[in-house]
Design a protein that fits this description.
This protein has 462 residues and is α+β, with helices and mostly antiparallel strands. The chain has 14 helices and 13 strands. Residues 247-460 form the Histidine kinase domain.
Length: 462
């Protein structure tokens, strides 16, 4: 049983089998077609009418009609040659072979009209008629004349089909379409599953899909096995990366802690000085850089694991309130324009902590570099949420807009030292937006400084 299933699930065997299956069904249909046309009568064409008029004349001259009436009919040596059959006014069949009588009776029963001769094929017997024949004009007795001969029914059908190429094409399409559709579906469905698995990997989901190895054709199962092995390798690499970063973090934090402790002891013993403050500032900056680097790494590894659906106001409410308070302490105008009516009716599907951190990073970046004003504009377009945050700082050259979202990128080293940046904040924002099928970009602000726009897709119930 397993061996049979194994063979049929081979792509090569299945295509080969379906080709011959389609061809066989087409042949069977052609051979059986004559048995399904019992009610089809065909008109005689002009050249056929001329042919049978000559047959009537020949039958009369050769005394075939007279012999039939005398009860001594003679039949041609070639069974494919038409021979006459008479139907008397009383309905008696004269001149027919025993195996022909049933077909002749059926032909007469279904076609009693004498106005127009017709032809009909019964299995391997062709009957043509009726032709009116007056043998006794004095008594006005009319006989019905038919011509009967045996034929190769399949040959006739084939001739009919091949004489009409369009009919042949339609026939092939009708027979092959259901089989080819089933074949294409059996091939296409596993490929679509593989595509869905690849799309899941693209958004960070490294979960193994066992269906790729157990369903579908053998060749596609083998591809699925290779795909799952690749997932295991990627998961192992990322796990090793996480372990390495954790180890690096531990090894870096230990001397940093010692350095900060030594700085505190030195400050207590010698008092504060510019040198000690510089050492303490650089140590804190290095500690923050390690924290940001670990956050970026964990985000890349685990952002797909913890997601929930939450109202969009939760994304910015607390962050903007805190930012307003801080801006007021620094005499910075902080304007928020919320352009969404009933925002609590809209939702996001994602990691709330990471998304909130992304918004906070953009706001913090604006607070660092603004001179005196910050503007936040929140609006919706179709099924996307947009948060635009502007400042009136020095801004950036246009060719720097994309670069600031790369890890450790610094526009100006002096500016970075003044603000204490690590070059990882906006790269974390970009990574978060990407993981949530959104985007982030920078541009020229209406206030004169830098504008950062975050776009996130809204959750739509299905």
């Amino acid at each position: 049983m397993f061996r049979k299933e194994f063979i049929f699930n081979s792509l090569t065997i299945r295509i080969f089998t379906f080709f011959w299956l389609t061809f066989s069904i087409l042949l069977i249909f052609i051979f059986l077609l004559p048995y399904f046309d019992a009610h089809i009568y065909s008109d005689l064409k002009e050249h056929e009418m001329v042919k049978y008029q000559k047959e009537i004349t020949t039958s009369m001259r050769n005394n075939q009609i007279s012999r039939i009436l005398a009860g001594i009919p003679s039949f041609p040596n070639d069974r494919f040659t038409p021979h006459p059959v008479l139907i008397s006014p009383s309905g008696q069949i004269l001149g027919a072979l025993p195996e022909e009588e049933k077909s002749v009776r059926q032909f007469i029963f279904n076609n009693a009209s004498l106005d127009q001769p017709l032809k009909k094929i019964y299995s391997n017997i062709q009957i043509v008629g009726p032709f009116s024949l007056y043998l006794n004009p004095e008594h006005n007795q009319s006989y019905s004349l038919y011509f009967v001969n045996q034929i190769n029914a399949q040959k006739e059908i084939l001739n009919y089909i091949f004489d009409r190429p369009f009919f042949l094409i339609i026939l092939v399409i009708l027979i092959s379409t259901p089989l080819l559709w089933w074949l294409s579906r059996s091939i296409g469905q596993p490929i679509r599953n593989l595509q869905l698995a690849a799309n899941a990997v693209a958004i960070g989901n490294l979960k193994i899909n066992k269906n790729l190895e157990t369903k579908g054709l053998i060749e596609l199962r083998q591809v699925g096995q290779s795909f799952n092995r690749m997932m295991l390798s990627l998961e192992e690499v990322l796990s090793n990366q996480q372990s390495l970063l954790s180890s690096i973090s531990h090894e870096l934090r230990t001397p940093l802690t010692r350095l900060q402790l030594a700085t505190a002891l030195l400050r207590r013993r010698l008092g504060d000085s510019n040198e000690i403050q510089r050492i303490d500032t650089e140590a804190q900056r290095l500690d923050k850089m390690v924290s940001d680097l670990l956050q970026l790494s964990r985000q890349q590894l685990n952002s797909h694991l913890e997601k929930d659906i939450f109202p969009i106001p939760l994304l910015w409410k607390e962050i903007l309130e805190d930012a307003k308070f801080e801006a007021a302490q620094r005499n910075i105008r902080f304007n928020v324009e919320q352009g969404i009516a009933h925002p609590e009716q809209y939702y996001l599907n994602g990691n709330h902590g990471l998304l909130a951190s992304a918004v906070e990073n953009i706001v913090r970046n604006a607070l660092k570099y603004t001179k005196s004003a910050i503007s936040v504009h929140i609006y919706r377009h179709e099924n996307d949420l947009f948060i635009r945050i502007e400042d009136n700082g020095a801004g950036l050259p246009e060719d720097e807009y994309e670069k600031i979202f790369k890890p450790f990128y610094r526009v100006d080293e002096t500016r970075t030292r003044e603000t204490g940046g690590t070059g990882l904040g906006l790269s974390i924002v970009a990574n978060t937006a990407k993981d949530h099928h959104g985007a982030v970009w920078a541009g020229k602000a209406d206030l004169g400084g830098l504008a950062v726009i975050l776009r996130l897709p809204l959750w739509v119930a299905k």
